[in-house]
Amino acid sequence: MNTPKLRVAVIGAGRWAVRSHIPGWQRDPRVEVVALAEINEEALAAAAEEFGIARAVTDYRELINDPDIDVIDVATGNHMHFEISMAAIAAGKHVLCEKPVNSDYLETRRAAALAAEMGVKTKLGFTFRFAPAIQFAKHLIDTGYIGEPYMFNGYEQNSQWIDPQTPLRQVDLEASPDRIAVSSIEGYGAPIIDIMHWWVDAPMTSVVGTMRNFVPERMVRDTGKMQAMNIDDGDMWIAEFEKNRLASIQSSYVTVGNYPGIEARIYGSEGAIIVRLVEEAGICQTIKVAKKDSVEFVELEIPQEFFPEGGVSTEQWPFLFYSNLVKDFATEILSGDDFNQGNFDQGALVQETINAFEKSFRTRAWCDFPLAVEAAVVEGAAAGDGAENLELARS
Predict the structure, then answer these.
(1) Residues in domain Gfo/Idh/MocA-like oxidoreductase N-terminal (predicted)?
(2) Rounded to an integer, what distance in angstroms lies between the CA atom of residue 226 and that of residue 160?
(3) What is the fold of 6-120?
(4) How far apart are CA 48 and CA 54, in angstroms?
């Protein structure tokens, strides 16, 4: 008896969708990509032809309302993530969404709560969590290789935009040039923040840090012109956790190095692990380890069980890592159990961390974590000024 395949509809046919999402799903024999939605008709037709997708529409609502579709994959621009995800969850679909679901962590948490209510699973595009080397490292941590975790150092750094002439998307074209806007720490810092929380495995209690705008004028992709772009293209943060643990995060668009430029290090009472997700010498990932009585780091071979079927470290990282992500999501959905890693709840935690980092920078002070927004909202609602209190809490 043949098991029915998981039926997936991808919304968005941009570069990341065609480079990672669609081929990642099609790599899994348990999955069928049955439909594609995209408002750009030229991009829609090209992607549908390239991947052999018979159903191609310009209105994503057609797919959300189709009872035969099991999963909605949201690979659109950021401004549509929340709207599409909420509609899909409300329709009883499992949802994979690129990050962020919403720049406000409370809205991401609301989406997670709706998913729990509807009995569907969610997953964020935390691509690097699903790198085989990162998954293997987490296995080593959980089985006691490093002992008690002490410190984590996370980096997301590459030189894609060190040249001001390289086009960069400006999220808010109306942003005030006098106020540095969040960019690197949200768009590129989120995946390493996710790994930090996952590996450190303790509640975060406070953060402090700063943002910088190193390149004040850039080629803006949406306008094709050089103009002022006051964004954080470099950040450094320190975080404190319960269980006496510490972490640091650095993200940047302008640090020399190959894309994606992820490095995660964790040090404990018995040993240490360093994972690099950087395209170098024909491979996309390495893991090195050391022990307290043998402090020279040595490279380990990543067991095949942490790869998608047939996967190797010489593959292009967007295809390899995303294949693992969608394989994991398909397994979670088909298993019927409650396990669901990297979901919207985790997305809310990561987004709240980003919001706390920003608050620390704006106030030039340590910021307690978790943020006290819910309490402010409740108190404000009782006094009849909930919206004002919410804005004050977020400032």
Answers:
(1) 6-125
(2) 17
(3) Rossmann fold (3.40.50)
(4) 7
Cα separation, 273 vs 138, in Å, equals: 10
Q: Output the pTM of the full model.
A: 0.91
Bridge partners for 204 per DSSP: 241
CATH fold for the domain made of 129-335: Dihydrodipicolinate Reductase; domain 2 (3.30.360)
Parts of the chain belonging to CATH 3.30.360.10: 129-335
Residue range 105-146, pLDDT digits in tens: 999 999 999 999 999 999 999 999 999 999 999 999 999 999
**Residue 286 bridge partners (DSSP):** 276
Q: How far is CA 254 from CA 56, 159, 277, 297, in A?
A: 38, 5, 17, 28
What are the structure tokens assigned to 13, written together? Answer: 């046919």
Give the three-state DSSP class for 154.
strand
Per-residue pLDDT at 270: 98
- Kindly give the parts of the chain with pLDDT less than 70: 1-2, 171, 173, 373-395
Q: How far from each other are the two terminal CA atoms of the chain, in whole angstroms?
A: 58
Tell me how far apart the alpha carbons of residues 145 and 131 are, in angstroms, rounded to a whole number. 19
pLDDT of residue 39: 97
DSSP state of 251: E
SS (H, E, C) 188-227: CHHHHHHHHHHHHCCCEEEEEEEEECCCCEEEECCCCEEE
Please give the order of strands across the beta sheet that includes 234-241.
294-299, 286-291, 271-277, 262-268, 149-157, 245-252, 234-241, 204-212, 367-368
| 361 in Cβ contact with 353 (< 8 Å) | no
Cβ(299)–Cβ(288) below 8 Å: yes
Write out pLDDT tens, residues 167-206. 998 767 677 888 999 999 998 899 999 999 999 999 999 9
